[in-house]
């Protein structure tokens, strides 16, 4: 996955510090700057964990985000123990690890309860912990936008997707959802631009490839359309396989004892992803 845009790490008069990027929530740039500056590994370990949490939330791999996020407290404690008290205090104030754990739990808990997820205000209440943390707020806004889109409330959905992107310029799924609104509104060229921007951020995102294919087809670009949709199909099957392996690791490898069952689970998962993409046009 690529960064939202180019970064200038330093100038002759004012070399930038990783703290500058951390304070503005540009965690990947903070990590790159820390590495180039020779910052102690106890700090770069924390920054790397934050980047991994952010990437997992963007991809909606919430169990993975929760596992990495749970280790942030220990990583911050290690930084303080080796004398990096100022750095650890700054990171702790920005990351609020306890709040982050609650925020990730709120995102991961959606769909596991009963009721409250078909009304925007009820969903917003359930998402309060996620809306309150900068690492999860973009995804919470995106989820609210998806609900409004499903309710055919395009104006509200567009505003929320825009808020999500403003909060996290690297949130490629929110960008894809903006493209979906353009596509549904009869603007395939505008949709194409949004999908290509999403793919600049994450070239492996199958949903944006599929929807790009649809937008290209509606513009009469048939050959390009076929190529995009074929790539989406390959990526969606691969993603289903990766998700299945990740789930098996989380369960201690229970399914691995039956290779034939694993094979059918993977095939079914791939088919389900393709069906959902074709039915809904990806995004979400």
From TrEMBL:
The chain crosses the membrane at residues 261-278. It comes from the Bacteria. InterPro entries: TMTC_O-mannosyl-trnsfr (IPR052943), TPR-like_helical_dom_sf (IPR011990), TPR_rpt (IPR019734). Gene3D superfamilies: Tetratricopeptide repeat domain. It holds the Pfam family TPR_16. Keywords: Membrane, TPR repeat, Transmembrane, Transmembrane helix. TPR repeats lie at residues 172-205. This is Tetratricopeptide repeat-containing protein.
């Amino acid at each position: 996955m690529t960064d939202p845009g180019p970064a200038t790490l330093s100038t002759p008069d004012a070399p930038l510090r990783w703290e500058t990027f951390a304070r503005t929530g540009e965690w990947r740039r903070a990590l790159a700057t820390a590495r180039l500056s020779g910052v102690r590994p106890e700090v770069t370990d924390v920054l790397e964990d934050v980047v991994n949490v952010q990437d997992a939330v963007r991809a909606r791999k919430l169990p993975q985000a929760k596992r990495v996020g749970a280790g942030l407290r220990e990583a911050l404690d290690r930084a303080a123990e080796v004398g990096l008290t100022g750095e650890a205090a700054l990171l702790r104030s920005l990351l609020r690890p306890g709040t982050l754990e609650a925020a990730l739990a709120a995102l991961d808990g959606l769909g596991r309860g009963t009721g409250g997820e078909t009304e925007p205000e009820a969903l917003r209440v359930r998402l309060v912990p996620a809306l309150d943390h900068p690492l999860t707020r973009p995804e919470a806004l995106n989820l609210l936008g998806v609900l409004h889109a499903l309710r055919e409330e395009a104006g509200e959905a567009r505003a929320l997707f825009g808020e999500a992107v403003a909060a996290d310029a690297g949130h490629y799924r929110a960008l894809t959802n903006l493209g979906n609104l353009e596509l549904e509104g009869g603007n395939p060229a505008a949709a194409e631009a949004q999908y290509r921007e999403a793919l600049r951020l994450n070239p492996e995102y199958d949903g944006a490839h599929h929807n790009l294919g649809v937008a290209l087809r509606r513009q009469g670009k048939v050959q390009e359309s076929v190529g995009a949709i074929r790539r989406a199909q390959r990526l969606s099957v691969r993603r289903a396989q990766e998700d299945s392996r990740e789930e098996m690791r989380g369960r201690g490898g229970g399914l691995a004892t039956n290779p034939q069952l694993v094979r059918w689970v993977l095939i079914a998962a791939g088919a389900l992803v393709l069906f959902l993409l074709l039915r809904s046009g990806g995004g979400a």
